[in-house]
Design brief:
The chain is mainly alpha-helical. The protein has helices at 2-15, 23-39, 41-46, 55-67, 79-87. The chain has one domain (2-87). Helix 1 (2-15) packs antiparallel against helix 4 (55-67). The longest helix has 17 residues, at 23-39.
Length: 89
């Protein structure tokens, strides 16, 4: 979980590189981005059909790879759960 959380924090930095947004706003954007990525790009990347397109996708891949052994119900996907992770930074 430590590596996953570090990847999620890095994704947050990429979403808000100038640190202008509140932690809640970044968490909300990250939740939306992660949800879209996990539903669309992640299956193709995992199958080897394509590579991550940018730095954000690269860190999302790292986060999802570290989530593989965690039960789905315990994976942070909501803005609230992501907020908790980002707040511990």
């Amino acid at each position: 979980m430590v590596l996953r959380d570090a990847a999620l924090r890095r994704a947050a930095e990429l979403i808000d590189p100038d640190d202008e947004l509140s932690t809640w706003a970044v968490s909300s954007r990250l939740a939306a981005t992660l949800g879209r990525f996990e539903a669309t790009a992640w299956p193709r990347i995992r199958a080897g059909a394509r590579r991550p397109r940018d730095s954000l996708e690269t860190v999302l891949v790292a986060a999802l790879e570290h989530d593989a052994e965690i039960p789905v119900s315990q994976r942070p996907r909501s803005a609230r759960r992501l907020y908790d992770i980002l707040s511990k930074a």
